[in-house]
UniProtKB/TrEMBL annotation, chain A:
This is Acyl-CoA dehydrogenase family protein. Residues 6-117 form the Acyl-CoA dehydrogenase/oxidase N-terminal domain. SUPFAM superfamilies: Acyl-CoA dehydrogenase C-terminal domain-like, Acyl-CoA dehydrogenase NM domain-like. Signal peptide: none annotated. Residues 122-215 form the Acyl-CoA oxidase/dehydrogenase middle domain. Its cofactor is FAD. Keywords: FAD, Flavoprotein, Oxidoreductase. It comes from Neobacillus rhizophilus. GO terms for cellular component: plasma membrane. Residues 227-379 form the Acyl-CoA dehydrogenase/oxidase C-terminal domain. One of its GO terms (molecular function) is flavin adenine dinucleotide binding. It comes from the Bacteria.
UniProtKB/TrEMBL annotation, chain B:
GO terms for molecular function: acyl-CoA dehydrogenase activity; flavin adenine dinucleotide binding. This is Acyl-CoA/acyl-ACP dehydrogenase. It comes from the Bacteria. It comes from Neobacillus rhizophilus. Transmembrane segments: none annotated. The lineage of its organism: Bacteria, Bacillati, Bacillota, Bacilli, Bacillales. Keywords: FAD, Flavoprotein, Oxidoreductase. Residues 210-327 form the Acyl-CoA dehydrogenase/oxidase C-terminal domain. The keyword Metal-binding does not apply. SUPFAM superfamilies: Acyl-CoA dehydrogenase C-terminal domain-like, Acyl-CoA dehydrogenase NM domain-like. Its cofactor is FAD. Residues 6-72 form the Acyl-CoA dehydrogenase/oxidase N-terminal domain. The keyword Phosphoprotein does not apply. Belongs to the acyl-CoA dehydrogenase family. Pfam families: Acyl-CoA_dh_1, Acyl-CoA_dh_N.
Amino acid sequence: MDFAFTDEQIAFRNEVRAFCEKEVTKEIMDEIYVKGDEHSPSFYKKLAEKGWIGLDFPVEYGGLGKKQIEMAIFREETAYYMAPMMSNEINNILTHSILLIGDENQKKEFVPSVAKGNILFCMGYTEPGSGSDLASLKTRAVKDGDKYLVNGQKIFTTNAHIADYCVLAARTDPQAPKHKGISLFIIDMKTKGIEIGPLWTLGGYRVNTVYFENVIIDESTRIGRENEGWKALALALDIERSGLVYVGKARRILDETIKYLNREKPECLEPNHWVSEKLNGLLAEVKAARLLTYRVPLMQAEGKVPNGEASMAKLYTTELLKKVSTTAIEVMGKDALLTHKSMRNLVNGLFEENYRSSAMGTIVAGTSQIQREIIAKRGLHLASK
Amino acid sequence: MDFNLTKEQKMFQQTLRKLLENKEVEKNSFSRDLWERLAELGTFGLGVSEELGGFGDEYELIQVTAYELGKYLVHSPFYETVTISAQVFGKQEGSVWRKKVEEIISGQKIISFIDKANNIIAEKEDLKHWRIYGKAEVVSFGQIADGFICSASNTLFYVSKDQVTSVDLDFIDNRPVSQIYFENVIVLDQNRLSEVGQSEKILEFPRKLGRLFTSSYMTGASQGALDLAIEYMNTREQFGKTISSFQALSHWAADLQTMSDAALLFTRQLGWEITNGNDTETSILCLKYAAQVYKNCATAVVQMAGGYGFMMEYDMQHYYRNVLGTEQIYEAPQNISVDLRLKDQKEASLLGVTI
């Protein structure tokens, strides 16, 4: 048993912290709040200069070749500083799909460019009728010689309006069982027939509806074999379910809350005061949540597949972040509800923004209900008949 | 980093589990025979220095032991005798105390603990004696203890069973508890176990071990309760299918299992931190967390089993009765907390070099 990070891992954590302290500026945060993109080109460039966009990509494809724990530290700490990391998350997930099933040409073409920060992907998976039941997606890619004709609609697509490419999941065999008739494609977003429309979220960020109308793409854009895209798609969901981002944010909210109360209402932190007791309870939960999240990369490093465990991490941390965000406002009062635009706001509107945006965590990458299904069926082996 | 038990720890766990299975332990009961078998296994020497005949800093194995005892819902004076008394005696000079540690390790002696909440008074009688008086309200294992470590006027004393009067009480989970009367008990100053007014100082480390024991016990009990519920849900049929197929139940179980897993990792972390001297606040937070998880599980399993959960012939009721018994008998989590006024102003939750 060993709960310590190595000296190298501690040094790396400190490096990430120092970087975020310096680079996640008020100007950067204002930029993303105003534009509503969870992406800052200038910050992204800085990440690329550090080599951290390709942190866990293989060295031969321009990455740093770091392992799961380093990636976990990176995710947790950048989330703690509320750095705009959504583009990096999406790029990381989709690049791993390419690394998993893509051919050598695709790996050479895309992975080094992603690592350098030259390419932004968006994830064309979710559809209006296919959210939790993603495998039921209806967007069609019909083969015609060495081309495919794509028709369909994607929804809630983050970054579609700024992305260079879309990794699209489309049905290539409508007769096959639903998981077995799906293929993945890398589509240039400038291709004729793609139309993008904005949707605005409760969190204040833009996502999109993306229409594909008679879009013609080359066969070489397909990642992996035809009808075998589900494996890479499911891998993406596993990466998204580690929960490290949410636990990092929960830690930050809790820290800022305690800091504020120590300064403004220290009597609330007297032992046995209800506020102190609530925060003690949350501190305990954050510590427990952190263990659930780190169990996921540890299992991956051991070559195990963290299935129920990843769902536990995702379920617990996303629900906890909502709880922490709500409690923070309850114990600090109405000042915490002032937005980033308002005078007298707290930490540039952090609490208000986080309360709104934390509602996303329990929905994206498999809702809490879906995570509970996975835990019940695959973790607890509860009978379903 | 590695959250798993080592090979040796797994072997110890298997041996202990086998013992508890073979003994067909009755839930919510104390067995003297089992106590002696636990002694043979060496569990009472865990955390006791090798110099005193123990196994040294094997705090992680205290976590393993407590978890298994909790899973089987065994009542035992492990907290009082091993995590508190053996540690306090081990800090004393002289062969008398050394012998007491040996007697604990071998399972010959059971020592109970009377905490400060009982308002027992100690007054200096003369240069060599103290006079102790008062009433300790609900003392666990009071009727079978060979002696007591008693916090009186914030000073620790050893008092033998012959010096006090014990009256049996009937407790919610059948745990042996009693009321202990100190009627002007005269105690030699050499039986004083702490500096005058400094009981908490010597109890600081034993309390951490106590929290490790209690939180691990409660985590094991949480899992024991959940295992029962899952077994029941997979066999009980209603509306033509097993009730596990209803999401109202399966999702509830998923939530509870998630918390139970988190509590298990948390208790392992605490054991590891105590071993590595890095447990600043983990023991308090871990106890709070494990108690909450156990309350959630113990109350849920009764509800999940419907009418049967409420019946004494089914095992779910054992957990429902045990949970508050365990919480209130030992250091109640609602009475302790991390002082957030002392937290680092910058990063209160920064957890340093450990996870």
